[in-house]
Amino acid sequence: MRTNIDLDDDLVNEAFKLTGVRTKKELVNMALEELVKSRRRMDWRDLVGKVRFHDGFDPKALGRPRFVRPVDDDPDR
After folding, report:
1. C-alpha to C-alpha distance for 51 and 10, rounded to whole angstroms
2. What pLDDT is recorded for position 24?
3. Helix/strand/coil percent split, the chain, to 5
4. Which of 19, 31, 36, 45 has the fewest CB atoms within 10 Å distance of its CB?
5. Is-above-0.70 flag for pTM?
6. Distance between CA atoms of 17 and 27, rounded to whole angstroms?
């Protein structure tokens, strides 16, 4: 689809530096793709009351390390 749009030059130049794309067409298409992806992503808060966890599930345990290396108390080893 062809269209004429007035873009913020500073914003376009910064976007070129951040993305590495070479044309405004690529830049605008990339921006549109990212916008659509981000809007389609489900917000986890939308799941409140819709997800049932197993009894004893501890969400805090997901952030803990699964393996902790024992401390070597013997410095001569």
Report:
1. 44
2. 95
3. 50, 0, 50
4. 45
5. no
6. 11
C-alpha–C-alpha distance, residues 27 and 43, integer Å: 26
Q: What angle do CA 71, 74, 77 make, to 5 degrees?
A: 110
Q: Domain residue spans in the chain?
A: 9-63
Q: Which sign, positive or negative, has the C-alpha torsion 18, 19, 24, 28?
A: negative
pLDDT (tens digit, 0 to 9) for every residue of the chain, 77 residues total? 888 999 999 999 999 999 999 999 999 999 999 999 998 887 778 888 888 888 888 878 777 666 666 666 666 66
Cα–Cα dist 16/23, whole Å: 8
Tokens read off for 35: 């916008």
